[in-house]
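Dear H.,

Thanks for agreeing to be a second pair of eyes. The structure we're designing against is below in token form, covering all 134 positions.
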């Protein structure tokens, strides 16, 4: 069902500083920041030859990632994103198998302007999983 790893998301307290680390120290190509108010974050993508790193900074105290950053003040790995060909079919199959989809279980448009869903970390070895339709 799942395809290739699309990205690993890391919540950071300072998006500018984190971007500089990936760009200036690690030599990666780093995108410009994009505010995503519907998700409560500002995102930057670090492009790698085989995948991406998504750097996330909360957009305000009401952001879902604000709680994560409060518990992890230095930041840390937030989720992994896998590609799927059909997000509705993937969702229905996962729900039938007993997995929980976060929110209202309806796909939202993600950072790549494609439908995404998040799966409950308690159902996947403590890892928050994002599915993105390719």
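And this is the sequence the design step returned. I haven't edited it by hand at all.
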């Amino acid at each position: 069902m799942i395809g290739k790893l699309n990205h690993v998301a890391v919540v950071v307290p300072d998006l500018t500083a984190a971007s500089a680390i990936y760009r200036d120290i690690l030599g990666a190509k780093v995108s410009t920041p994009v505010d995503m108010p519907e998700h409560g974050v500002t995102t930057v993508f670090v492009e790698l030859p085989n995948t991406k790193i998504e750097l996330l900074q909360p957009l305000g105290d009401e952001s879902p990632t604000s709680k994560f950053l409060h518990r992890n003040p230095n930041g840390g790995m937030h989720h992994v994103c896998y590609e799927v060909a059909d997000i509705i079919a993937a969702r229905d199959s996962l729900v039938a198998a007993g997995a929980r989809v976060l929110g209202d279980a309806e796909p939202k448009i993600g950072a790549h302007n494609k439908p995404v869903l998040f799966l409950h970390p308690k159902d996947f070895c403590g890892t928050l999983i994002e599915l993105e339709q390719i």
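Two observations from my side: Strands lie at 5-11, 29-30, 34-36, 41-47, 52-58, 76-84, 108-109, 115-119, 129-133. The chain has one domain: 5-133.

Warmly,
E.
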